[in-house]
Amino acid sequence: MNIQQFEWVVQTYSPMLLRVAFLYLRNSADAEDISQEVLLTYWQKQPNFPTEGVRKSWLYKTVVNRCKDRLRSHWFRKRAELTEDLSYLPPEDSGLMDAMLKLDIKYRIPLHLHYYEGYSLKEIGQILRLPPATVGTRLHRGKEQLKILLGGIYDESL
Predict the structure, then answer these.
(1) Helices H, strands E: what count in the chain?
(2) Which domains does the chain have, with CATH numbers?
């Protein structure tokens, strides 16, 4: 892999990796760190993937696993929680993101992967190591909780 190919991967996938990491960690600085760690690992290992879908899936699995490791770490559990300022988002997006961040992690990630990234239940199950039926249940329950949090504002889009 040459530097141009790596730059393409960074430009193509870093926004998505950052969003997933942010949904897990609820802090943009930590999400940026995790995204950069994943991309550094990709550069160091230089894996060869048969398709673009496999590359994308590998990147997602890696960012999810790194986030889980960070959440379990002693340092992360003992640090002071900082509130995230979402004022940079348009008002309609900040309300949705704020509601998403109030959901349990087990609902946030499947919702994001399905509705923002377009993954199927089977693909999400492979990324999160869950049966597709469990992913479907979490999507349904997450949507119901979002509807309650948003007061029915986004009923049509979900």
Answers:
(1) 8, 0
(2) 1-84 (1.10.1740), 89-158 (1.10.10.10)
